[in-house]
Amino acid sequence: MTDVIDLVDLAQTLPQLIIDMKYATVDNLTGHPIYAQALCLLHPDAAQGLARSVVVAEQSCYRLQLYDAYRPHAAQIRLWDACPDPRFVASLAVGSHHSRGVAVDVTLLDEQGKALDMGTGFDEMNEKSYAWCAALPVAVQRNRLQLYAVMAAGGFVGIETEWWHFELPNADRYPLLPDRFGCTLPNRRTAV
């Protein structure tokens, strides 16, 4: 059965959102572009919540920058190949909440457009990327807490292992979606 959910194009509906689709660039854990297109799509439920988060960020003198939203399953395969660690990349057996269209990877920018110091970069897969890493300076922890507050205002919850990842509660109740755009790297996995 084909899923007929129309995903929301965030570039069209949220022009105040800063979009930097990392998996369409080399600036990600694989070091290669994965997405053939830099489309920024999201399930309507998540898009509605993200719109609220964008407004709350602006009211707090920040801007929200988005690194990833909907992710094709083919891209999830490539990420799993690069980092087969379920703490950081959803296993192929379960499927990513990004592939359900209800998860985003984000950060906050200050009034000058500079990213707040979150202690690690996006896609830095280690313990310092854990949302509540006590080893990081207080200022970094405060920045992460501000990001959590902005995203909570839109109804999102974070995960323990990635400060940048937020999803709708009970995200697994949403179905995995068919691929909406292509990927650039060849499939290295013959069976899922």
UniProtKB/TrEMBL annotation:
It is an enzyme of class 3 (hydrolase). The record marks R71 as: Transition state stabilizer. GO terms for molecular function: D-Ala-D-Ala dipeptidase activity. Pfam families: Peptidase_M15. Keywords: Cell wall biogenesis/degradation, Dipeptidase, Hydrolase, Metal-binding, Metalloprotease, Protease, Zinc. PANTHER family: D-ALANYL-D-ALANINE DIPEPTIDASE. This is D-alanyl-D-alanine dipeptidase. It comes from Symbiopectobacterium purcellii. The gene is ddpX.
